[in-house]
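2024-03-11 09:14:02 INFO queue: dequeued item Glutamate synthase subunit beta, len=486
2024-03-11 09:14:02 INFO validating residues
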Amino acid sequence: MADPKGFLTTGREVAKTRPVAERVKDWNEVYVPGSLLPIISKQAGRCMDCGIPFCHNGCPLGNLIPEWNDYAYREDWSAASERLHATNNFPEFTGRLCPAPCESACVLGINQPAVTIKNVEVSIIDKAWDSGDVTPQPPERLSGKTVAVIGSGPAGLAAAQQLTRAGHTVAVFERADRIGGLLRYGIPEFKMEKSHINRRIEQMRAEGTKFRTEVEIGKDIDAAKLRRRYDAVVIAAGATVSRDLPVPGRELNGVHFAMEYLPLANKVQEGDLTVSPITAEGKHVVVIGGGDTGADCVGTAHRQGAASVTQLEIMPQPGAERNANQPWPTFPMLYKVTSAHEEGGERIYSVSTTHFEGDEDGNVQSLHLIEVEFKDGKLEQKAGTERVIPAQLVTLAMGFTGTDQANGLVQQFGLELDERGNIARDENYATNVDGVYVAGDAGRGQSLIVWAIAEGRSAARGVDRFLTGASALPAPIRPTDRSLMV
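2024-03-11 09:14:37 INFO prediction written
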């Protein structure tokens, strides 16, 4: 155990963020560099080393949290990094982007603020990179088997790294011009600087993984031909079809999906563009959708110099404390103030958009909304609550409905879909097509980064067994496993 009295003597302290007035002027990560290291050992010492660590249940990766908390408390950073990497290929991603269901399941959280597990995780991995503890791990021998991975998001990268280290020759195909999937172009720079992706890619290259960018399977390469060229295929193409809002005025200029808006802002940071073709500068911005993607749009609009930012959510505002029907250790729906929300703007709950209005040139100028409420399990509009707000840029951040079928990948492989439109798979992540497996959101539906990595690791075991007859690779979750929620 770390500090037997740590949870009694040390209060919860989290990473410090840079002043709002400073950080909205740049695209660097919002946290004060180096602010965690002076406090993180004591924070790790708050871990109770529970007899039954429920943080394991909250984390689909099965992270050995009490173990690396103990090492971090003792400042044995090399051992902490080894324990961290034992279950997680990319802790620098999850340590920055995961909503930390492990903290919701922390036993200390029953009656005290939970251990800052996420902050400990990112401190360990950042220290490991700085000290040179993260090195390539090429396989001792090659199997002679080849694997194609379609998609380079967290699920695809995790599957590729596991299979490469198992001795297979792996090629990752990505339709964008850079590796990373939504990590690259969906996550703003202020949440995770892309240097973290770049150095992982270089590690994977040194291990033997091959990368092919600007290649879309189904369009540039026929899926059936790809299957014939490789001994196995892993589909990790994500759930990239955005949920639309079919209301009058949707066709107006200035109404965009979040995933049309955010990638362009990231391309500016990559140096591909000087100015984004879709910019919030000087405009009244409305973000429809109250989740993390919506918050990313809010923060991006602030940095582009929006005149105002309003975020709409159809659901009621969550409470600050757990509801009785969301008891510990489930992941509760709580009112969350992200760094983007700290930077300004208005959030409006329990409203629905009825239509957009534009000017004579077809540019959106305003949005009409109405208050809604749930009655008998149904969403109903409240008469007399209509109002109009200015909107010269609207981003739709209402989630995703499934994997892309327009490119022909699903049809060319001959894949079966489940009742929700995801690619169907069995308990080993295998599809109905021999040798073709699916991992991540393409099979699970829209989910969290930590689930994507867990799926990639688990699918890699299924592929390894298919290729060799047995596998020593871990499989932290089953395809049917779901978050610890009520």
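2024-03-11 09:14:37 INFO annotate: The two ends are 31 Å apart (CA to CA).
2024-03-11 09:14:38 INFO item closed
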